[in-house]
Design a protein that fits this description.
Blueprint (H helix, E strand, L loop, with lengths): L2 H13 L8 H18 L3 H10 L4 H7 L3 H15 L4 H13 L11 H12 L3 H14 L4 H10 L11 H25 L8
Helix pairs in contact: 1-3, 2-3, 2-7, 3-6, 3-7, 4-5, 5-6, 6-7, 7-10, 8-9, 8-10
Length: 198
């Protein structure tokens, strides 16, 4: 990492007060997915990596302010990047990728970097990590198993069909299969139990 990226990492890490479903560990995984997918797809890393670092920086503020985290995060990223004199010609692409990353934002990712970030963020909601994050999220909102499984059906099982990149689609197939297998096992274990005859 270069010095500017190191400074961004420290700045973003400081914004996350608590771990959780959208804590800094999630940001780290999204960055690593962006590095891998972006390299394969030929993305501009000077846009993609800052966008990945800042994509959820405003998550901790969303409940307090009511401002969608993708909008506030884009604003915060632009402000910070200008404060460190990051090249201005990259900032619009970073802001767009952050604004378009959210599943429910309704903003279509129009650049390769925005598509890679969207894929990476969605991939981190799938597979084994996605399962763990879903139950953390349910607990954060005072919910239980039923709330978590509703989230699987409302969102996570739809993510496979929302991938923009070829490598994203390939990874999503594997992670989707893990979601389905987990839900099948959970369904088996939560149904009425029939004991074998002795």
């Amino acid at each position: 990492m270069d010095e500017a990226t190191d400074r961004m990492v420290a700045h973003v890490r400081a914004a996350f007060r608590d771990p959780g479903a959208h804590g800094f560990d999630h940001t780290g995984r999204v960055v690593r997915l962006c590095e891998a997918i972006g390299a394969r797809e030929g993305a501009d890393m000077a846009v993609l990596i800052p966008a990945a670092l800042f994509h959820d920086i405003a998550r901790p503020l969303e409940e307090e302010t009511g401002v969608p985290h993708e909008e506030e995060g884009a604003r915060m990223a632009a402000s910070y990047l200008r404060s460190i004199r990051y090249p201005e010609y990259h900032i619009a692409g970073i802001v767009h990728a952050i604004r378009a990353h959210r599943y429910s934002s309704g903003i279509a990712p129009e650049t390769l970097e925005a598509r890679v970030l969207s894929d990476a963020d969605n991939l981190d909601a799938m597979g084994a990590v996605g399962i763990a994050r879903t139950f953390i999220r349910a607990g954060e909102h005072g919910g239980g198993i039923a709330d978590a499984t509703a989230h699987f059906h409302d969102k996570l099982l739809n993510l496979r069909d929302r991938m923009y990149t070829e490598i994203g689609r390939s990874i999503a197939e594997e992670r989707h299969a893990r979601l389905v297998a987990f839900l099948d096992a959970l369904d088996d274990e939560t149904q009425a139990i029939t004991l074998p005859e002795s």
